[in-house]
Amino acid sequence: MADGLSLVTGGAGFIGRHLVARLRAEGRRVRVLELRDPGDLGCEVVVGSITDRAAVERAVAGATVVYHLAANPDLWAARKAVFDEVNRVGTEIVIAAARHAGVTRFVYTSTESILKGRARMAGGRPQDETVTRRLEDMPGPYTRSKFLAERAALAAAAEGFPLVVVNPTLPIGPGDIRITPPTRMILDFVNGATPAYMDCELNMIDVRDVAAGHVLAADKGRVGERYILGNINLPLARLLAILGDLTGLAMPKRRVPYWVALPAAIVSEFVADHITKNPPKAPVTGVRLCRSPMIFDSSKAVAELGLPQTPIETALADAIRWMAATGLLRRTPTRPL
């Protein structure tokens, strides 16, 4: 597939920038569809929304492979309908244009959160791609919109469209200009802005491995299949210990139980919705997702695609170096990174 044109929607996002860089490093021709001019990405850029059919059709024209990453990744928005408009409707528009254009491969970027929803994982075992969830399992407008978008993607694959789904877990690493939720979490801990934490277990992966997983899914993935792009499952307390070891900075020690965190999140989100219009410190969707372990099994992607598994310590160290270089740190690490 190296000879064709690759379209990346959301190519200026966290994963998108790393994907564009990887495609270009492999000598592939790249075009990006972005809502606003992203500056120099080293490739052709079409400015437009994925909800604008004409813009999407211009972007898709001549593409062989489409990587559809563009989405609203936040867990909160002042206007809740934006999640459905962008994540579901936008995905349906991009798929329709790609089908009409006759692309040979389409990679849809879903999320690990819809594989868990608000459900508790049976026996505490990591979740794999075989899980089935219902719309009512989704704990908020973000997860509902992504659930419906993935359903539309899999329906297109069932009809013969050459589409593969990837479900990244929490991407960590350098270059998250827009400060997505995983990066915000790390940044707040390093800056001392989070005095306590709700203990839960998460799956994390180097963002550069996620980018590699997208390319591998296009090249090797089976049509109609999901691939969880993840790496290590670790308790949040262990993540804080790693951050402390890397930076030499004190990390929060106080744990907040779920029965305290959820009411606090509900109040915080109510204030955000109706008064400040600023993002709450802990969105309700995020708290509900973390009620039980967010742990996943990525062995299918490793075995079938060759998904890299960079140590998470490397990703975290590179993320903190990038934060320091871009002036985001309010506390200075006492250990060299």
Description of the structure:
It is a single chain. This protein has helices at 14-25, 53-60, 81-101, 113-116, 141-158, 181-190, 207-220, 236-247, 258-276, 284-289, 299-305, 312-325, and strands at 5-9, 29-34, 44-47, 65-68, 105-109, 163-168, 170-172, 196-197, 201-206, 226-229, 232-235, 254-255. By secondary structure, it is an alpha/beta fold. The chain has a domain at 5-175 and 204-232 and 294-309: Rossmann fold, CATH 3.40.50. The two termini are 38 Å apart.
Précis, in short:
By secondary structure, this protein is an alpha/beta fold. The chain has helices spanning 14-25, 53-60, 81-101, 113-116, 141-158, 181-190, 207-220, 236-247, 258-276, 284-289, 299-305, 312-325; strands at residues 5-9, 29-34, 44-47, 65-68, 105-109, 163-168, 170-172, 196-197, 201-206, 226-229, 232-235, 254-255. Helices cover 43% and strands 15% of the residues.
